[in-house]
Specification:
The chain is of the alpha/beta class and 296 residues long. The chain is 55% helix and 13% strand. Helix 9 crosses helix 12 and helix 10 runs antiparallel to helix 11. The chain is globular. The termini are far apart. Its EC number is 1.1.1.60.
């Protein structure tokens, strides 16, 4: 029998499936629940256990991890008679790894405390590739003692793991991360269109740019997407649109001006409005191409 905590995993999407599988590989007993049967089948094939409901998944868990798209989904699985707070045992640790508003995380921690359940907000950065390779950056909000308890689990999922402050701090840092990523992708997309219209060998140009000060993790991860026009979703435009809404709203609340971020948020919104919401966020290239006169 393993001495590792028993884990319930709620949400087995593009990120959740490989992350839960990495916990299984590390020796954790993982019971999962999601809405898609094929994702449950994938979990059981990897050595996990499928649960028919949130309540069933969390009932005997020491740690409950949620990885769902946005604040409404977190609230849907956390609250109500069939939710996590009503069915997890007192003393359990709830780790929300979704990207949601900081206030949602703060409210969840308060509600969970009344049930004797501890909470960490622990959103991640690194995309699907980072999830598969277990090299995610994990930004955490909550109590130091809960972070210390969860750290071995985080180490099975990521490489850079930092407690950023109290409840909600992880989500605030994730919002800043999404701001930087979106602006970076937009800059890369504009550079690609400029280079191609100038008749430069795009692959050679991106290789040399990525070796200098213009280089970035974004360019490393998304270079092939740009070169091949492969926009299969690693992180969907729809989700980045949601995240840009989070960061612009949070910035307004604290009185921080985001002039470039606001423009990129509108470009992401327009890309989504043109029907590209299901594509990878590197599809911002398509928006720049349209603005530059291409038929996309």
């Amino acid at each position: 029998m393993s001495n590792l905590p028993k884990v319930a995993w709620i949400g087995l999407g593009i990120m959740g499936s490989p992350m839960s599988e990495n916990l299984i590989k590390a020796g954790y007993d993982v019971t999962g629940h999601t809405l898609e049967q094929d994702k449950l089948d994938r979990l059981t094939a990897a050595g996990g256990t499928a649960a028919a409901s949130v309540a069933e998944a969390v009932r005997d868990a020491d740690v409950v991890i949620t990885m769902v798209p946005a604040s409404p989904q977190v609230e849907a699985v956390a609250y109500g008679p069939d939710g996590i707070l009503a069915n997890a045992r007192p003393g359990a640790l709830l780790i929300d790894m979704s990207s949601i508003t900081p206030q949602t995380s703060v409210d969840l921690a308060k509600a969970a405390k009344d049930k004797g359940i501890r909470v960490l907000d622990a959103p991640v950065s690194g995309g699907e590739a980072g999830a598969v390779e277990a090299v995610l950056s994990i930004m955490v909000g909550g109590e130091q003692s809960d972070f210390d308890e969860a750290e071995p689990l985080f180490e099975a999922l990521g490489r850079t793991i930092v407690l950023c402050g109290p409840h909600g701090a992880g989500q605030t840092v994730k919002a800043a991360n999404q701001l930087i990523v979106a602006v970076n992708i937009q800059a890369c997309a504009e550079a690609v269109v400029f280079l191609e219209k100038s008749g430069v060998d795009l692959k050679a140009a991106l290789d040399v740019l990525n070796g200098g000060l213009a280089g970035s993790t974004v360019l490393t991860r998304k270079k092939d997407n740009f070169l091949n026009r492969d926009f299969g979703p690693g992180f969907r435009v729809d989700l980045h649109h949601k995240d840009m809404g989070i960061v612009t709203d949070a910035a307004r609340t604290v009185g921080a001006a985001l002039p470039v971020g606001a423009v990129v948020a509108q470009l992401v919104a327009s890309l989504r409005a043109q029907g590209d919401g299901g594509l990878d966020h590197s599809a911002l290239l398509r928006a720049v191409e349209r603005l530059s006169g291409a038929q996309v």
